[in-house]
Design goal:
Layout lengths: L1 E6 L10 H6 L5 E8 L2 E4 L8 E4 L3 E2 L5 H4 L17 H11 L3 E7 L4 H6 L4 E3 L5 E6 L4 H15 L4 E7 L21 H9 L4 H9 L6 H14 L10 H12 L1 H13 L5 E5 L4 H8 L10 E7 L11 H10 L4 E5 L6 H21 L12
Parallel strand pairs: 1-2, 1-12, 2-6, 6-9, 10-11, 11-12
Antiparallel strand pairs: 2-5, 3-4, 7-8
Bound molecules: zinc ion.
């Protein structure tokens, strides 16, 4: 089972030992951030720093001025890694250590872009803007994201690209000093609070046969009892959650909303967060049990114990994910993990690579090929 780990360029740039240390974990691939949102990240092993603060969304490479000339929406550059091309520098070191590098590109989650271009963000059924969430249905946002994905995908040294936040970012959002938990929403109500009702999306719903104001009116009507104190309808499991959405909006409205959203999202593979117990993994990977041939299903498991991960059960969890149909692993996150977490990862990947090597008869390869 092919194993990759997420990584930031600042985990490697300025640390001459980083690439070899990562290769020793038993990974085949590193998914390296090329365009990333704001964060405050620990770097427990770096010789020169312990905390990196990325103040805003930015590309971690020099963007091509010609590609962005004349565009209102353009990527932001960074100054928190002292290197003109942090992605390129890290990719070269990782490749030299024998690791394949994929470009990790965060698309429609960009608070600075949303703050600078308020007309381009998600608007909920009440008209409130979500500045962290550019609306991907809007032509100017779509054009920006396609250009960004294309530019970041072909960075020198990248052999693949993994896109994060390709759809509409919702209400759930890790925000500084959050105070939105006063009314528990649950999955279905949160979905309703995440539906975009900007003019472009309203036109999209209308194009699928709904009356112009149908979606925001239905959302407000459905949520009124929740704001008044009624328990939010919730399912437990995705099928039940969707059934609750259909009940809240009405089947026809819910179907049109889903069709509008599904139209914008298609890919040749998917990375599915499934950290948790066996039931969580089954619920997360289950919907992808039948998928088109030639597509990739990667199970994303957190291996940082301090962030809710379970590196000690990685081998068993990965085997369970494989039994549920996953072909690859994504481990979150090789830079943020402490020493004990990384030791557990190394042991688990050794066990997984050994068992895969035993199955791949006569391949002669030291690491396991994709299965
Ligand atoms: Zn919209």
């Amino acid at each position: 089972m092919r194993a990759a780990a997420f990584l930031y360029p600042w985990d490697v740039v300025g640390d001459p030992r980083a690439a070899a240390r990562l290769a020793e974990l038993g990974l085949q691939q590193v998914t390296l951030a090329a365009a990333y949102h704001s964060t405050r990240a620990l770097t427990p092993r770096h010789p020169r720093h312990r905390i990196v603060t990325a103040r805003h969304s930015a590309v971690l490479y020099p963007p091509d001025p010609d590609r962005w000339a004349g565009r209102a929406l353009r990527p932001y550059t960074q100054d928190w890694v002292a290197d003109p091309d942090p992605f390129g520098t890290a990719a070269r070191a990782l490749t030299a250590a024998g690791l394949e590098v994929h470009s990790w590109v965060v698309l429609a989650h960009n608070s600075r872009l949303g703050a600078d271009h308020p007309s381009s963000v998600v608007r909920n059924a009440y008209g409130d803007r979500y500045p962290w969430a550019p609306c991907i249905a809007r032509p100017e946002v779509f054009d920006h994201l396609v250009r960004l994905a294309a530019e970041a995908a072909v960075r020198p040294g990248a052999r693949g690209v993994e896109l994060e936040s390709c759809g509409w970012y919702g209400l759930a959002h890790l925000h500084g000093h959050d105070k939105v938990a006063g009314v528990g929403l649950g999955g279905a109500a949160e979905y309703l609070m995440s539906l975009c009702c900007c003019p472009v999306c309203l036109a999209g719903y209308a194009g699928l046969g709904l009356a112009e104001d149908e979606v925001p009116a239905a959302v407000r009507r459905a949520l009124e009892p929740v704001w008044a104190g009624a328990a939010p309808p919730d399912g437990g499991g995705r099928a039940a959650e969707w059934a609750a959405v259909e009940e809240l909006l009405g089947e026809e409205t819910a179907g049109a909303v889903r069709a509008w959203r599904d139209r914008a999202a298609c890919a040749d593979g998917v990375v599915v967060p499934c950290t948790g117990d066996a039931a969580v993994r089954a619920a997360a990977l289950g919907p992808f049990a039948s998928r088109p041939a030639g597509t990739t299903l990667a199970a994303n498991l957190t291996v940082v114990a301090g962030m809710g991960g379970s590196p000690g059960t990685l081998a068993a969890d990965a085997a369970h994910a494989a039994a549920l149909g996953a072909d690859e692993l994504r481990l979150y996150h090789a830079g943020l993990a402490g020493a004990a977490d990384l030791a557990a990862v190394r042991g688990a990947l050794r066990a997984l690579n050994r068992s895969a090597g035993g199955r791949a008869q006569g391949s002669g390869a030291e690491s396991a090929p994709p299965t």
